[in-house]
Amino acid sequence: MIDEQWYLSHWQKEGFYRGMRRLMDKGDFLVAGEWFNSDSACLGLQTDCLLVDLQRYRTLGMPGFGMPDFQVRQLPGTTLQAEDDLFPANTHFRDVMANAAGWRFIATSMQHQLPVRRFGNAINDCRFNLADDVQVSGFHKLVGQQINQLEQLDHLLPAQRTFIGRIQKQLADAKKGVFLFNIESYDDLQKNDATHAPLDAIFSVAAGFKPYKILQTQGFHANTKVILFDYSAKALEVRRYIVDHWDGADFPSFIRRIFQAFPHPDAFYQLWHDTTPENIDWHDVEMLWQQELEKWGGAQAFQEHWQVCRQLPHQYLHCDLLQTRQQLLLELGQYKHAYIWWSNAFFTIYSHWHYSATERKQQYLAWIDELAKIAPDCQVNGADHHNVAVNGLTASAYERQFMRHQDDELTPQHLHAVDIRF
Questions:
Q1: Which segments of 231-319 are extended strands (E)?
Q2: Can you tell me the mean pLDDT for 25-48?
C-alpha cells in the first residue's frame, strides 16, 4: 500500500513520490529497494516493494530476479550495513549459497557497475505491506467483513491496524468532512483572454479557495453565481459561515472561530498529517496561509478579491456526484458561460470503498455524458475515475474525446491542458 500523506511543504519531508523521483534522478540503475545480507551472506532484496528501470532491464537482457534455490554460486558479498546504496566498489564475488530473493538482480547490477539504490526512510515511512505475517496476524480473515464493524484488532500488526483505522475514520466521517485549505494546485487554472465571456456561474466543491481563484482567472460579473456543492453538509455550513462572517484578513485567526462555531468531532476537519483541531500547530496554519497568499500576490490582493466575491450570489447544494446529482445538473443547465470543478470526487477513499473500479467508471461515464448533454459549453475541471487531471476543455469537447479512445488503469487518457496531482 502506498500511504500518501499530506505533508506541509515547510516540514521538508520528502514523501513517497518525491522520493521515487529523487531515486530516478540520481543516475543509472537496474533496481532500487531495500537490500540485506542473508544468514549465509547472500545479498538479497526485500520483495514487498521494488523500483525497476525497465529500459535498463531490457538492455541487460531481461535477467531473472533470482529466487532462492540454495545453490552455491559466485555472487557478490559485502560487510556493509544495509543503510545506504549498494555500490560495486563495496562488493566482491565469492562462493555464496543463493538463499535470498533478488540475488540475480544484485549480481547483474554489480557485474555491470550499477548501484542498487536504497529507498530510505522517506519512502519506507509512506508504504506498508498488508500481507506481512499474514498467518500470524490473521489479517486475511478480515477480508469481506464490514470494516466499520471490526473491533478487537490487537492481534494485527501496527501497519494493518493503521490501515483499518484510517479507512474506518474516513468512512464514518467523510460525509461531515471540511477542507479549510486546498490540497491540489492552482496551476491548472489557465487565465482566459479578453475574447472569452466572463462566467455566469461557477460550480465548485466546497473546499478551500479554488472556486474564487477560478473566478479570478476566468472572469466574472456582478451577477455571477457561486454554486458550492458537496456530499458533506457540514462543509457547506462552514463555507456559508466563512462567506457570511469573514472579511478576508488573517484566516488563521478566523479558523479559531470556525473551530468554536463548528466543533470537532461534529465537524471532521480534513487536516494534514496526524493533525486535529485539538493538537494543531498554529505555526503550521500561519505558514500554510502565507503560502496561500503568495499564490494571490499578497494579503491585500487576496482581501480585495475576496471582498468582491463574497458579495456575489451564493447557493449551497448538498449532493453526491456518484449518487444524487440531478439537482446539480438542473442548475448547470441554466447557464451558458459556466465552469465546474469537481476535484477528485470519483477517486476518494470513500468512493473506492463503496464502489468497485467498474462501478466508479460507469458512474463517471454517466456523469460526463449527462454533463455534456445539459451543459455542453461548461468548462470542466477535476479528476477522472483514474484520478487523472481533466481541464482545458468544455464538457462536450471532453466527452467526445474521452469516448473516442479506450483506456484502462495502466493506460489512462490524458485530456488536460495542465497535469496536476490530486
A1: 268-269, 314-318
A2: 94
